[in-house]
Amino acid sequence: MSRPNPWAMGWAMFAATMMVLMGIWWVIVGLVAVLDDAFYVITQEWVFEFDTTVWGWTHMILGIVVSLAGFGIFRGVVWARTVGVIIAVASALIAFAWLPYYPIWAILFIAVSVAIIWSLTAHGDDLAAGA
Fold it and tell me: Cα separation of 34 and 60, whole Å?
């Protein structure tokens, strides 16, 4: 049995940490949207126009799932990598649709989601050997 690549393990820990942090961010953003509808202001007409309360609940649910998958990656659970990639893709798409509400955070979430997707898919074999 081969030893796992330390770089792969480092990227996995990065992905897990970012997933937990991103999940916490999503929950905070969702709470703000649910508690104060007027905090997020749409500046232009966009294709995706939803009520901020709907966005808030979406963000909170997604944040909890992303955080749980991040903790699963810390434990070396195989299903957490798959869920992590799927949720990171969903997170990037939701962040893209969220651009008109808060563009700086949306771009940050997209960038973190791309880094998570890359780290979980590029080194999947090494992570399976290390678990």
Answer: 9
Q: How far apart are CA 102 and CA 43, in angstroms?
A: 10
**Interatomic CA distance for residues 24 and 45, integer angstroms:** 29
Q: Distance (Å, rounded) from C-alpha 3 to C-alpha 39?
A: 50
Residue corresponding to tokens 């893209």: 96
Enumerate residues 6+ apart whose C-beta is below 8 A from 36.
none
Crossing angle for the helix pair 52-75 and 78-97, to the nearest 10 degrees: 160
pTM of the model: 0.71
What is the token pair recorded at 97? 């649709």
Burial class (CB in 10 A: 0-12, 13-18, 19+), 64: middle
What are the tens digits of pLDDT across the range 77-131?
888 888 888 988 988 898 888 788 778 988 998 998 898 888 888 766 565 555 5
Tokens of 82: 């798959």
Burial of 108 (0-12, 13-18, 19+ CB in 10 A): middle
